[in-house]
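Exercise 7.
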Amino acid sequence: MRILISNDDGIFAEGINTLATVLSELGEVTVVAPDRNRSGASNSLTLDYPLRIREEGDRRISVDGTPTDCVHFALNEWLDYRPDIVVAGINHGANLGDDVLYSGTVAAATEGHFLGVPAIAISLVGSTHFDTAAQVVKSIVVNLLEKPLPKNKILNINVPDIPFSELKGWKVTRLGARHRAEQMVKDVDPRGKVLYWLGPPGACQDAGPGTDFHAVEQSLVSITPLQVDLTAHDALESVELWMNEVGKK
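Solution. The predicted structure, written as tokens, is:
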């Protein structure tokens, strides 16, 4: 296998290095990741300055850009072949529910999908048992070799932060939802200038059975298939009728 790995926590993060070590048992691994933490970058591309890269070891490249930049660079410039899969992670912390809209980890997988490579995103709901998440990914990648994903889907995987032996199974889930984010935190720097920190994410709102939140709470690996097409297909007819009414006024 030829596997491309990226993340949003940076090339020196424990999660991505644990993942690279375990997946190297399956074949050739290339790591192309941000040179620092770029969590929350979503699908942003760097357009206002050129990217700089640095070789950090054998088949390891850091990029002074976003996770999307990294995968875009790897697939459109650095690699002279098409990898079998893009694996984004292991993220330090959950990507549940609304988190996927902001996640650089999910964005890295999405960019792989856009560029024609099967892709998955993997997150550890915590910061301890990265080995558990890596073993989960290894099993999934092996399975995907035998039974590939539909071409228009990526997988968003969240793993409870517990030893592998304590996992109670796997669960295909839908995205849950959080309450609105909490208030921003106002502060003052040493020079008296006012500054603002983003507040914590909202607490769980839609977290019942069937959701990714619920699965993780039950010590289950949550696997959520995502589609990149954001069209609200079930609303096309009603919006067209609405527009027809607007046009009559």
